[in-house]
Amino acid sequence: MLYSVLDAGNFFVIPGSPADVWAVEAYSKSHEKYQLRKENGFLKDEIVVVVVGSSFFYNELSWDYAVAMHDVGPLLIKYARRNSVEGSFKFVFLCGNSTDGYNDALQEVASRLGLLEGSVRHYGFNGDVNGVLLMADIVLYGSSQVEQGFPSLIVRAMTFGIPVITPDFPIIKEYVAEGAQVIFFQKDNPEGLSRAFSLFISNGKLSKFARTIASAGRLRAKNMLALDCVTRYARILENVLNFPSVALLPGPISQLQQVSWEWNLFRKEIDLGTGDILNMDEWGTSTSSRNSSVVDLLEEEFTKNITQNENWSADQDTISELDWDVLPDIESSEEYERLEMEQLEERMDGTFGSWDDIYRNARKSERFKFEANERDEGELERTGQPVCIYEIYSGSGAWPFLHHGSLYRGLALSSAARRLRSDDVDAVSRLHLLNYTHYRDILCEIGGMFSIANKVDNIHKRPWIGFQSWRAAGRKVSLSISAEKVLEETVQETEGDVMYFWAHLDMDGGFTRNNNDVLTFWSMCDILNGGHCRTAFEDAFRQMYGLPSHVEALPPMPEDGGCWSALHGWVMQTPSFLEFIMFSRMFVDSLDALNANSSKVNSCLLSSSELEKKHCYCRVLELLVNVWAYHSGRKMVYLDPLSGSLQEQHPIERRRGFMWMKYFNFTLLKSMDEDLAEAADDGDYPREKWLWPWTGEVHWKGIYEREREERYRQKMDKKRKMKEKMFDRLTKGYRQKTLGG
User: Fold this and answer.
1) Residue 98 neighbours by CB distance under 10 Å
2) φ, ψ for residue 426 (rounded to 5)?
3) For the segment 59-100, what is each residue's pLDDT rounded down to a tens digit?
4) In the structure, what pLDDT confidence band is assigned to residue 141 with cuts at 50, 70 and 90?
5) What is the distance between the alpha carbons of residues 180 and 174, in angstroms, rounded to a whole number?
6) 164-167 and 183-185: which strand pairing?
7) How distant, in Å, are the alpha carbons of 718, 728, 732 from that of 724?
């Protein structure tokens, strides 16, 4: 555990523990501050300043304390060199071991500085550390080491109600506020330390400001590390536990409300005032944390079980040396018998049955074998249908939520997850990118859409196309039989670009509206993406179109109270779908480029939760179709999944002046797509991990001309070979071989 505190890069460090606060509270019940000062020779009116540093043990006076002496030197000269009218000061250095010459080294330094005798003292970690902290009027943290965790000694000092002065280390500033719970000074700056120290002194006594700092620090220290500790344990559980695809996932860590320790669980132990928790060992931690450790209890229980198993085994028959000697003979005999039986079976004539039985078994095996080019009942039923809805799923746990019939077809994001005896589309076989688990997880359902759009004519030949997540049935927003009938009849009569959707955004997540806080499209997107949706979308949109920083890059979305699509539950014309995929591929590539350029390794721009990092882009891509449909001028119609009633949302007449048509124009998007295809074809990649070429077809005019030239060359080669063959027949003639020759 020592190295885990020193090196968080190689260990998963969980900061914080109630042990320090627990030990201080127990110690305070049995000890009185001024009684301890009297026993150790400190007067009641003297101001005791305890200088502490890193709590790690050293055999000699450490460099840490040598630096501290350099910083504290001006204070010692000012307050401990003579008896001042401002009061009497005693400086106590808490470090090392009381038997290793620390005191002699400190007294030598005090003599060189001309300090009064007894103004500087030394106490070691092998003594009563809690008592030294309780006697203090001011605690000065003089360490120069930047530790990985919040220093345990500062936690104890704050819990005792002692005002603390500490360097402005990041780990300390993360938990306490400057001028509210502690006073900071710049490291290796004696002048800054003197100014901070003077704030605690007024007319030779502790100032009112110091007492305010001490009181606020005591309240802060009690539950300061609770939230961080609970969060780290929750992160461990996220990485250890694997939930099935149908399981209701726990909420994100960001929603944890645990801000204090459950002190009622410790109160009985604190009231007992056991002596184990009152002491600190040489590492600056309480011995109780090891004596009462859950690990030790588990180890004790494990040892007890081993002992019981050994006692039980002793009562059973043990294997003797004679048994080991006979074992090779037994194995050799069994091997000989096995070989002999195999040879006998090879020599015996086997009966394979009649030819009718053989033929019947062969036909039966062919009938049960599903060939890729065969058409099953589902495909035959879909013949002539104007629309097909692809239900996207990623695991066998989603099978009960999938629909059957001519309107639906499954789309499996994993080859191993396909339903047996079905014609579900294997997205991995159509898009090689989905072979990589990382991209399959962060793209989610839209990765399946990319696979359908990749050479779409090979799999989808209908004028309308739709999609739906398997989660729609679980959330009771999938289409009823009557709604399906309305949809099929409506698309046959529809003219123009229309997007029909039936999964309402407000149904996705259980968020409610109230009069004081009306949820807009972008605020809902922020909620679903950890508060980072607008920033990430704006940055990705800006990079996609190469917009300068002063140009607005977040498309406006209306606050007209209309519905927005969710769960990828929508239907549109196939050409419109291909245009949407063309836009989505470029947007996903820009979003991935921003995420790859992040300073943090394996980071996610849209979430800080480990669980949500795995599906980083999923929630924002789920809402992307709304932005595209609104600003490209598509008519958006909400289809009630139960009754089948239709209602237009965000009418086009009201969008005028708000739509960014110039960015969603098909000609512009097609030109951008061809530019990217030309760069990919020439091998001119803008970055090492360029995602766009892997998300679908790469096609531009140069590729078309090259393919046409290749077809023409093959045609001319075929004609040349035919001419050569005819010429050989005319010149050399054709001779038939003689019979029997």
Assistant:
1) 14
2) -90, 105
3) 444 545 555 566 677 777 777 665 554 567 888 888 777 665
4) confident
5) 13
6) parallel
7) 10, 6, 12
Instruction: Pick the closest to residue 135 from 52, 237, 54 (CA basis).
Output: 52
Nearest CA-CA partner of 687 in 586, 583, 597: 597
Q: Secondary structure of the chain: what % helix, strand, coil (to 5)?
A: 50, 10, 40
The answer to whether residues 87 and 122 touch, using CB atoms and an 8 Å cutoff, is: no
What are 711's two structure tokens?
Answer: 């077809």
Q: How many helices and strands in the chain, by DSSP H and E?
A: 31, 16
Three-state secondary structure readout of 612-667: HHCCCCHHHHHCHHHHHHHHCCCEEEEECCCCCCEEEECCHHHHCCCCCCCCCCHH
* 3-state SS assignment for residue 233: helix
- Model pLDDT for residues 551-583, shown as the tens digit of each residue: 999 999 988 878 999 999 999 999 999 999 999
Q: Where are the beta strands (DSSP E) in 161-278?
A: 164-167, 183-185, 201-202, 205-206
**Window from 239-243, 279-283, 433-437, 635-639 with minimum mean pLDDT:** 279-283
Beta bridge partners of 262: none
CA distance 672 to 665: 11
Q: Judging by DSSP bridges, how do beta strands 646-649 and 47-52 pair with one another?
A: unpaired
Cα–chain center distance at 714:
52
Q: How far is CA 719 from CA 211, 423, 708, 711, 732, in A?
A: 101, 41, 17, 12, 20
> pTM of the prediction?
0.49
Residue identified by tokens 């007294």 is 107
Residue spans of beta strands (DSSP E) within 382-493: 387-393, 408-412, 425-426, 464-469
- What tokens does 228 get? 């961080």
